[in-house]
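Standup notes
- HV: blocked on the assembly model, inputs below
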Amino acid sequence: MFQRILIANRGEIALRIIRACRELGIESVAVCSEADRNTDYLRLASNAICIGPAQSAQSYLQIKNIISAAEIGNVEAIHPGYGFLSENEHFAEVCRSCNITFIGPSPEAMARVGDKVSAKELAKKAQVNLVPGSDGLVESEDEALAIAGRIGYPVLIKATAGGGGKGMRVARNDLSLKDGLKQAALEAEKAFNNAGVYIEKYIENPRHVEVQIIADQHGEVVHLWERDCSTQRRHQKLIEESPAPNLPQSVREDICKAAVRLIQAAEYHNAGTVEFIVDSDNQFYFIEVNARIQVEHPVTEMVTGIDLIQQQIRVAAGEPLPWKQRSVPCNGAAIEVRINAEDPENDFRGSPGKITKLRIPGGPGVRFDSHVYEGYVIPPYYDSMIGKLIVHRPTRAEAIACLRRCLDEFVLEGVKTTIPLLKRILSHSTFVEGRMHTTFVEQHLVSKDRS
Amino acid sequence: MSEPSAASPAPFDLDRLQQLIELMEKHGLSEVSLRRGQEQWRLRRGSPAPVMMSAAPMAPMPAAPPPPMASASAPPAAPSAPKDDGLLVIKAPTVGTFYSAQTPEDPPFVSVGSKVSPQTTVCLIEAMKVFNPIPAEVAGTIAEVLVKNGDAVEYGQALFKVRP
């Protein structure tokens, strides 16, 4: 087991990792930028090293600063957290060449699952469903019609050089497909200088369901059940829960097994998440792998009783997983809400500043993962998430009631937060009935985006 | 549970209290929190006299005032403005290991009394096997060397004091 670990991150996840280290009897070296120097959680690390100015690019993202701190901190391993360098293959390689264990997958496994083309190949090899579509660019109208005939309408025409929602149009029949292809090619040529388009099945009102996996360095891969993260705003998750509501048990088992097959095919070890979209017929399709621990990991920790961060450290130290698949439970229902310092009335722009009052809820099944405290000044340089409130109760209905009660108890003054929006979501029939999909928040609960 | 009394502290404590008050005024601190075992002191300036509280242990408040929030880019680790003693401070522009000379056999780049100009190399900081020469960035005479050869230094750490 490691004696000393460096945490290459900040905020709530850095605190989370420090806590895991303390319980395992491992010394922790925290890094901080000048803007984070006085943050309270640093005192819980064995040592804190300032590695650069406020800007992430010159501090938390600077590989040489992180490695330099690791060297003077005399650590054996680095936990990258999420974001920052956690999915940076080059960083993982540098750690390895400096004889420092990167707590995560190998650079090669990261590359195998991180590259879109390679990940699709792995999915095919592992017999995991992909979103059906053309295999590459569509060369002719006839080809497009044949594909649409095969996969069924509606279909999505996508510009290969596009991204982030640009260069996409939906076609619901042969006529609109023919028209759409011409239009899409013209627009793509104009906007991206590349007229190439491809076709995918259009999934209406998809659910975002992801599977937590963890694999040791001895070939054992285990899933820790699924999470539903459909409650989003502009592709940013607001609420995550486990188990996914209204998903038949057989589908849950199939989707989790598919995730395990894919991770096995990737020869991946440590923690990761396999993302799927699920359509209204409960058909699921592989989207991508997140080769890191995720923000919403506490939801899985509550229903399985497993400390994921500790387990990541153990796996990295070479220990075998201590349980087999059949002993991984999914007890009760856990729901997490992300609390962001954002102004819901001003297009959710960041609301940095000093927290003048803070009262955290409590009671059975209540967990608050956060680095903030009364008097803390939220810096403007980093993401706006200031804490995660997680509840775990025997049923989903009880979890919702608990969460509503907690948000009513919650007091946070000095900055604006997304708590009012969260309360409205938790009272909305779509959420209460477990019928969420990835655009329901934008459709029903926020004013139209001025994008 | 009996409340700790706010009665007059022992004479020893009065001296300590006086020292703390003077230190707070000298350094412009608005709040100081100290804890030793079960005893906790919290002094806050801004009222006519600093208030001493000896309460049951609670979570310590941050000891220093919160850092200022910058809206534009933060300044680089440049030498700070002259302090009370009129000296400039050369700070580490990177995290790593401080070396005072080019090699172990060489004399140090500078020592107390050395004259420096902005381009003078005052030390090396090694990060990831790369030895970075650190320029003085100020002109003057080295008044104090604050770190030893081989010390680990963090970003922004004070290395030398320079009399301009």
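- HV (later): unblocked. The CA atoms of residues 109 and 268 of chain A lie 5 Å apart. The first helix of chain A runs from residue 11 to 24.
- Next: hand off to the docking folks.
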